[in-house]
Specification:
heterotrimer; A mainly alpha (313); B alpha/beta (348); C mainly alpha (311); B: 348 residues; alpha/beta; Rossmann fold; 2 domains; eight-stranded mixed sheet; four-stranded antiparallel sheet; 22% strand; globular; C: 311 residues; mainly alpha; 13 helices; elongated
Chain lengths: 313, 348, 311
């Protein structure tokens, strides 16, 4: 078991190394001079030189990478080309917004997929099954930003039920934070939830046909006990892994939806950084998303071996 | 039902049967039409008795026993007839009543111990969960009983095994756990659906012996399903041979071996594994395929594969079960001319 | 449940029906018998037609005003302008029609990039195994660690916005999916008897791959291609929506949505019709992908389901 954890962490570290190289190169494959590009019309030789030196662009690539990665490891991601503020500080300021949106979306996705997927599997071939399948097919195919716009139009503007956009810190006003969270979380969650719904459905169907389910029936257990204690318990295992991998998809949605709902998180930060050609900020945001993804999947894999007793490495 | 028993060492059949099956029929709606899986099954099971049901896959042997536990999915399935347990027709049961029967009055152990145990739940929970339900035990009482049971079925270190998972046990041990699960609530009837097929020959013998011992101890009626007459010979008192959803021959076990009557039984015996040869495959010695339950042949269902076909009725009539000896019945026209008409008609 | 086992047993005696039709005919027939797939094919036919013949079908040009801005801006759908007009008095229907081309071209080229490089990497990784396999698949893990849109955004940030760069960006994003699907299929056939036999009689690697491996991995790749087309079109729309994809004066559905978003209260049609176009196109590709999978590869769960791979 310990051996497995060590190996799995090593593997994640290896991928993280690759990620860091890619993120690092981001700023260096830009055709032309990134600092000059970033400064644009506000060009001023003094700032220019200061930024170049701060970013270490005057040194050999290997040295630059080494400097960058050692600073990044200690939490220093450089300074913004635009505002001159430390990138780490900017990112940390945006992190709660993105994490709460991602978490809300995962909750929406899991609740949706387990309810819809389980009911559909139990009533396989029925009207409910077809409706659930149609909903998930629609959810997979709908552009999330379009759905966000439609939700804003309907609930934010026409019905005036929810605030159409913006982010309020839960520390300032928890209730308004939740109100603001609902629509973006649903938008991101429904898309991932639709994919998971199919997966839960097929997992439950598979478990329904398994011999151990027949054994459970032959013991005279209640349907509820069979469903929760035997079927879902088994269906949960593959679903956990897929949910982890779904995170890449979900985070993708987070980036776009943050823009649609002006939800001031990391995605919006990255987006603004692209428009501003503020490469250090973009680098930092991209790196953080990737680290988050790797971290969650590492946790999921370790969790997996805990939930599935068959796996003892 | 007539009580003409002659064979030796047959359990006491003078009391009341624990299970009376009358004209049991199971059908399935399929895309191609109605599959007639079980067509008029008829037998009694006495306490302490072991009834062997033998047939190829598709003969309806497993389905007929699932019907005894209300485990045939309806729809697409449909179960008709009568299954009396302690004087009550189980087929009138509501779902809640069925749950009281399953695992409590009638228990079942299945063919493949590798897949029949839930892989993600500890053994202890799987042995005890229906005790909590049916016997109203507390978890610690149930654990104690589970330890007793697991020791009884031959698992060493039973207390510690409660926390084990199925994958940590060998196939034979898992089947022992399955048996413990089956016995947990002291059922009056135990259905064993090919419980040794997936096991090694030596383990097979151990399991057969274990069930034999436990049967005496628990006074259970046992229905042992198999495609293998060899296994059944070692455990059954009486044997039903099923083909195409029907019983084609029924006899005390010794007599069936000594004097088989139906051509299909002859075929099965001819394909018994030779001593020393390991053979876990389905019986293939009889040429041809089992009948399609959606489209059963006219006349005798075995006719297309039958080497004799000596009666013109073979093609037009279903041969009824007739006495060919005391407590020995066979559904074939062929041997009828050789014998006197049976003196005692069966109440089919 | 006992259902599967019992029905299986009940039907065990059924003789298997032998289908004598040629394989392509079986597939075609099955697709046609699937009404959803038929509907999807119809929708895609319409979109394809718009993509090819758009300029000659559209009543107005991309940036042509139907009249003076004052009189004709933000007019709701009517007989003359069935999708209404936008804030610059342009005909939304014409723009939707003309936007089809961008979606299709970006989608197709991006998937083409991902398909060729991903399949090649997957083939090499699966066929040779060992260190090469490790290296390629870890590299794919690295690519896969970035949220797709963010990855595409970053690539566009480096290369600059525009149609071609959007294709490259989206193409890169999908390489890992094809590499994984291909590698998985290669692994499953690599040790099959006939492949080993071919190898033992000295068939060259290239010949082995061409004659024995590729035909066997074709089915999952075809299915993955169809589904990826759906997601690539979604990604293109998202990029254009963010202003990083197709640039004006060309029309694109994502871009139109972004413009419509600003007028959502006065002119819902500006956002609804382009969105609906994206949705229907993506839905159709997904439906066909599902139908193809059922026909070609009934045992495979969709790549989306089994690997959680999406955009």
């Amino acid at each position: 078991m310990t051996g497995y954890i060590v190996r799995r962490v090593m593997q994640a570290a290896g991928v993280l190394f690759g990620v860091s190289i890619l993120v690092f190169l981001l700023i260096h494959v830009v055709p032309g001079d990134p600092v000059r590009l970033a400064l644009g019309t506000r060009f001023d030789p003094e700032t220019y030189e200061a930024l170049r030196q701060r970013a270490g662009l005057d040194q050999p690539l290997i040295v630059q990478y080494f400097n960058w990665i050692t600073s990044a490891a200690t939490g220093d991601l450089g300074v913004s080309f635009r505002s001159g503020r430390p990138v780490t500080q900017m990112i940390l300021g945006r992190l709660p917004a993105t994490l709460s949106l991602a978490f809300g979306a995962i909750v929406v996705a899991l609740v949706m997929s387990f309810t819809l997927g389980t009911i559909a599997a139990l009533r396989q071939g029925s009207k409910i099954d077809h409706v659930a399948t149609a909903i998930s097919q629609f959810g997979i195919s709908i552009p999330d930003f379009w759905m966000g716009i439609l939700l804003i139009l309907l609930f934010g503007l026409q019905l005036d039920l929810l605030p159409p956009s913006g982010y309020v810190s839960p520390l300032d006003d928890p209730w308004r934070f939740l109100q603001h969270l609902v629509m973006p979380a649903v938008t991101v969650g429904v898309v991932s939830g639709s994919i998971l719904t199919r997966f839960v459905r097929s997992s439950v169907l598979e478990a329904l046909g398994e011999d151990y389910t027949r054994t459970a029936r032959s013991k005279g257990l209640r349907e509820r006990t069979i469903l929760v204690g035997h079927i879902l318990r088994n269906a949960l295992i593959p679903t956990i892994t897929v949910t982890g991998l779904q995170l890449a998809y979900l985070l993708s949605g987070v980036v776009v939806i943050e823009v649609v709902f002006s939800w001031s998180g990391l995605g919006l930060l990255a987006y603004d950084a692209v428009l501003d050609r503020d490469y250090p900020v973009l680098q930092g945001a991209v790196l953080l998303f990737a680290v988050f993804f790797l971290l969650v999947n590492l946790i999921v894999d370790l969790l997996y071996s805990y939930v599935d007793p068959r796996i003892r490495y | 039902m007539s009580q003409t028993q002659t064979a030796a060492e047959v359990p006491d059949r003078s009391g009341d049967p624990v299970l009376e099956v009358r004209d049991l029929r199971v059908r399935f709606g399929t895309k191609r039409g109605t599959a007639e899986a079980v067509n008029g099954l008829h037998y009694d099971l006495y306490p302490g008795e072991t009834l062997g049901i033998v047939g190829e896959s598709g003969s309806g042997k497993s389905v007929s026993t699932l019907a005894l536990m209300g485990l045939v999915p309806e729809p697409p399935g449909r179960v008709e007839g009568e299954v009396s347990f302690e004087g009550r027709n189980l087929l009138d049961n509501t779902e809640a009543q069925w749950r009281d029967v399953r695992g409590n009055d009638i228990a079942m152990i299945f063919q493949d111990p590798m897949t029949s145990l839930n892989p993600v739940l500890p053994i202890g929970r799987q042995v005890t969960e229906h005790m909590l339900l049916h016997l109203g035990m507390s978890q610690s009482e149930a654990n104690d009983r589970a330890v007793e049971l697991l020791e009884r079925v031959g698992l060493s270190d039973a207390r510690r095994r409660l926390d084990s998972y199925p994958h940590q046990l060998s196939g034979g041990m898992r089947q022992r756990v399955m048996i413990a699960i089956g016995l947990a609530c002291k059922p009056k009837v135990l259905i064993a659906d090919e419980p040794t097929t997936a096991l090694d020959v030596t383990i097979q013998a151990q399991i057969v012996e274990l069930v034999n011992d436990l049967q005496d101890e628990f006074e259970m009626g046992v229905i042992w399903i198999s495609h293998d007459l060899g296994v059944v010979a070692g455990i059954a008192d009486r044997v039903l041979v099923m083909y195409g959803g029907r019983v084609v021959e029924e006899a005390p076990v010794d007599e069936l071996y000594a004097d088989p009557s139906h051509p299909y039984t002859l075929g099965l015996l001819g394909s018994l594994p030779v001593l020393g040869r390991r053979d876990r495959e389905e019986l293939t010695a009889i040429p041809g395929l089992p009948p399609d339950p959606v489209d059963l042949p006219r006349g005798c269902t075995f006719r297309p594969r039958c080497p004799y076909q000596l009666d013109e009725r073979c093609e037009t009539e279903r041969p009824p079960l007739r006495d060919v000896g005391p407590a020995h019945r066979s559904a074939c026209f062929y041997q009828v001319p050789d014998q006197e008409e049976p003196g005692e008609a069966f109440d089919v | 449940m006992s259902g599967a086992a019992t029905t299986h047993e009940a039907e065990a005696g059924a003789p298997p029906a032998v289908d004598t039709r040629p394989r392509w005919r079986q597939i075609a027939d099955l697709l046609v018998s699937n009404r959803l797939a038929l509907f999807a094919l119809f929708v895609l036919g319409v979109v394809l037609l718009a993509g090819i013949l758009g300029p000659s079908l559209a009543p107005y040009g991309v940036n042509e005003r139907v009249g003076s801005i004052v009189d004709f801006r933000l007019r709701p759908p009517s007989l003359n302008h069935i999708f209404g007009t936008d804030e610059l008095a342009r005909d939304v229907f014409s723009r939707v029609l003309l936007g089809a081309r961008a979606s299709l071209v970006v989608g197709a080229v991006a998937v083409g990039i991902a398909l060729t490089s991903g399949t090649l990497l997957g083939l090499v990784a699966g066929f040779y195994g060992g260190k090469i396999d490790d290296f390629i698949m870890r590299a794919m893990d690295v690519l896969f660690s970035f949220p797709a849109i963010l990855m595409a955004i970053a690539v566009v940030a480096v290369l600059g916005p525009g149609l071609v760069n959007a294709m490259i960006a989206i193409g890169i994003v999908y390489i890992p999916i094809f590499a994984r699907v291909t590698r998985g299929s290669v692994l499953s056939v690599r040790e099959l008897v006939y492949v080993r036999a071919a190898r033992s009689i000295g068939a060259s690697d290239a010949r082995l791959i061409r004659r024995h491996i590729l035909p066997n991995v074709a089915a999952p790749i075809i299915v993955q291609t169809t589904i990826s087309l759906a997601f690539a079109i979604l990604s293109e729309a998202a990029l254009s929506f963010l202003g990083l994809g197709v640039q004006p004066p060309a029309a694109s559905w994502g871009r139109m949505l972004a413009e419509g978003r600003g007028f959502i209260q006065q002119a819902w049609w500006m956002a609804v019709f382009p969105g609906l176009s994206i949705f229907m196109t993506v839905l159709s590709f997904n439906l066909i992908g599902d139908a193809l999978r059922d026909v070609l590869d009934p045992h495979q769960r969709s790549a989306i389901e089994s690997q959680g791979l999406g955009v």
